[in-house]
Amino acid sequence: MNPPSSSFSADINGEPSDNSLKKMVEDLNQSNQQLLQTIEELRTENTKLQLFINIAAHELRTPIMPIVGYSEILQEDIGDRKEIRGIIYNAKRLDQLAGNILEGAKIENQTLKLDYGQFNLKDILTDIIDDYNNLLTIKGSKDVTLRYEPKDILIMADKVRVGRVISNLLNNAIKFTPRGEIAISVIELNNNNGNGEIQVNIKDTGTGLSPVILPKLFSKFVSTDSGGTGLGLFVSRNIVEAHGGKIQAQNNDDGIGAMFSFTIPKVANSQIYHSK
Predict the structure, then answer these.
(1) This prediction's pTM
(2) 3.40.50.720, 1.10.3720.10, 3.40.50.150, 1.10.287.130: CATH of 12-111
């Protein structure tokens, strides 16, 4: 029985012949060209996908502010009613989701740039906590209390994005705290360069974090529940790191609930962030 034919041939000493080497090089070049073509096609499709995400998220946000505005006018005319608060809150919630989608796209495209300015951290904390207290009222959640002792702290950072981080973390805490307390606190820290940092802590008495998901909690599309997008914590991590800070999460020592913390410098980090 004759052995199967092969394009490979060798000389009398068992070394590959010139023709075999030439054929191997040609095959390798052809494979590389096919790979490069495939990579380029994937890049093109990814660009189209990112463009679609940007357009969809922007279109989603366009009608949200008028809904909030008209609802607030209606609220002034007929009084503070639960139904109107529900409309306002859910419109803001939709805006937060669209915002996270846009931020996620910027992180992927390495185009996330911070808009630094000085502001009082107490102001955005108070506004966000008021919004979530409205949410608890709408949901009829009388078993959950938000605790925060206002303190004036001036920092130089991106106000909108710091607010997004706080909102994402507080939303996560409320989602997993059916009863008990969520405590929000701010600590001023000293660092080696003498400029100082602030640390924001959000501590709940909820269900806590699974040891399985904890190591990858801030990765993209990793969600702590089946109904989440897994974008909020990913976006929060990248915003904090863009400020030159750190974010972390851990279960509480008493075994009840978890605490999310992030630190950022009190003064501006002049570096423009590039996704890692």
Answers:
(1) 0.72
(2) 1.10.287.130
